[in-house]
Design a protein that fits this description.
The chain is of the alpha/beta class. The protein has three domains: 4-161, no CATH class; 167-260, Rossmann fold (3-Layer(aba) Sandwich), CATH 3.40.50; 287-481, no CATH class. It is 50% helix and 11% strand. It has 17 helices and twelve strands. The strands form four sheets. Strands 3-2-1-4-5 form a five-stranded parallel sheet, sandwiched between helices. It has a three-stranded antiparallel sheet with strand order 9-8-11.
């Protein structure tokens, strides 16, 4: 049987017409509630200062913190909320979305906007805004913005169930799909649709068949039809003739797409430019988790570069005194989706190390498309110490800050190693490369590239923020032991 969700999505459209004016009204209602909530939280936050006086009849002592500072700070917050709501398609009452789904979307949008606001407060160092006010504002916004949408949805659906503004439809095709579609419409009066019957030349015994497809003009006039639903999209000539006739009769036409023996059940219809497309499968992207990960990368790299700057200066000076050549080593590496970037490190080798690399490939101790020698003759005396404690890689915090790398992820390989990848190896490029990773803390001295690849793929498949934290903690232990090469 065709699922209810499939049919719902096929017929999906906003419940209330009105386009931009209605959406503008939704935005204004949201903004009104957001600032009303801001005032409520502000005054209740400081209730101990004025509430006892108010109850006793004495002159109330208003909060000393400037209200204007809070309200001006809420302007970007309100903007973030509106953008988050727009991203969650919350400025239309979608028939495919239940009230619970809509409330969950509101909570998700409020959580995202509040996290972004909190991150901004932390990074900007603003001290005048109480974190408690931000938390309570987020909770109050989630509740009130969900509640008014639930009320609005009930009004809209009640209007549709009462038949006010209902549209008469006729279904072309009286087969299984057509009858399932009719049954579902009749069980969900909130769609605002009334099925008047079918058009089909092969089911004459069905009492609800009002005629053949050729009778479209006479049947639609006699039944005051507003919309035609086609359930036989594979019959292209029929679809073309019905669409042309419906256009002449000024009727709306919708086509129920092929479901490919169930593969397309619950598949949403989207647009790629002007072309409608049906997603048969989509790999979910943890957008919120990625946002938090990037925020942590930015904060971690910023603090790392700030607090480690004296050490970085000492290392740079030591390299300059130790051997001739530049202080920094710039290497072309391959990052996410095979995008090349310049990876920064402190120089640990002699100045002509790259020119001597091909002559040393026969000494490579790794199996697979990457190069490593434990006692590399190109290393300087200071370079051995820097590599032992991974101090040469501290400069990659700059790559993390730029977004080319993450604190945790598969290590970025040089371009010449990347060119030796097989097709299976490319999967490790699905994510942003990292300063440290699962391989570095689990099998750093294992010469097998297959082991390296397996650990990288395990990290990609099982990624979560807790895993990143565990890898960072284990990395500190590995670095302290001096296991680098």
């Amino acid at each position: 049987m065709v699922s209810a969700t499939t049919i719902l999505r096929t017929l999906a459209q906003p419940d209330i017409p009105g386009g931009r004016w209605v959406q503008t009204g939704y935005v204004l209602a949201d903004l009104f509630l957001i600032f009303l909530n801001a005032l409520a939280v502000y005054y209740f936050r400081y209730a101990p200062d004025w509430l006892p006086a108010l109850l006793s009849g004495a002159p109330a002592r208003l909060p000393t913190d400037p209200l204007g500072a809070y309200l001006s700070f809420y302007l970007p917050y309100a903007g973030l909320l509106v953008l988050s709501f727009q991203a969650q398609a919350l400025y239309s009452t979608q028939r495919t979305r239940t009230s619970l789904d809509e409330s969950l979307a509101v909570f998700k949008a409020v959580l995202l906007a509040t996290l972004l606001l909190t991150s901004f407060i932390y990074l900007s160092g603003v001290k005048t805004i109480s974190r408690l006010v931000i938390v309570w504002s987020g909770l109050l916004n989630a509740v009130t913005l969900s509640a008014w949408r639930a009320w609005k949805r009930e009004v809209v659906e009640q209007r549709a169930r009462s038949g006010n503004g209902a549209r008469n439809v006729i279904i072309v095709g009286a087969g299984r799909m057509g009858h399932e579609l009719a049954r579902h419409i009749e069980q969900n009066r909130q769609f605002g649709l009334v099925v008047k019957g079918f058009l089909d030349g092969n089911h004459a015994a069905d009492p609800r068949v009002l005629g053949k497809i050729e009778d479209l003009a006479s049947v639609t006039r006699s039944q005051f039809i507003d919309e035609v639903l086609l359930t036989i999209p594979s019959a292209r000539d029929v679809v073309r003739s019905v669409a042309q006739e419906a256009r002449r009769l000024r009727l709306d036409v919708k086509v129920i797409p092929e479901l490919y023996d169930g593969l397309a059940w619950r598949a949403p219809i989207e647009y790629l430019g002007d072309f409608p497309v049906m997603s048969l499968h989509r790999e979910p992207i943890p957008a919120l988790g990625q946002l938090v990960k990037r925020s942590l990368d930015f904060v971690g790299a910023s603090l790392g570069l700030l607090f480690l700057s004296p050490l970085l200066c000492l290392i740079a000076l030591a390299i300059k005194l130790d051997s001739p050549g530049p202080v920094f080593y710039r290497s072309r590496r391959v990052g996410r989706k095979a995008r090349e970037f310049v990876c920064y490190k402190f120089r640990t080798m002699v100045a002509d190390a790259e020119a001597r690399k091909d002559g040393l490939r026969h000494l490579n101790e790794r199996r697979g498309p990457f190069f490593k020698i434990s006692n590399d003759p190109r290393l300087t005396s200071l370079g051995k110490l820097l590599r032992k404690y991974s101090l040469d890689e501290l400069l990659q915090l700059w790559n993390v800050l730029k977004g080319e790398m993450s604190l945790v992820g598969p290590r970025p390989h040089p371009v010449d190693d990347y060119r030796q990848y097989t097709l299976d190896c490319l999967r490790r490029l699905d994510v942003t490369p990292g300063l440290t990773g699962l391989w570095q803390v689990s099998a750093r001295r294992d010469p097998s590239f297959e082991r390296n690849l397996a650990l990288d793929l395990e990290y990609i498949e099982t990624w979560n923020l807790w895993l990143d934290l565990k890898i960072l903690l284990r990395t500190a232990g590995v670095v302290a032991k001096g296991e680098g090469q």
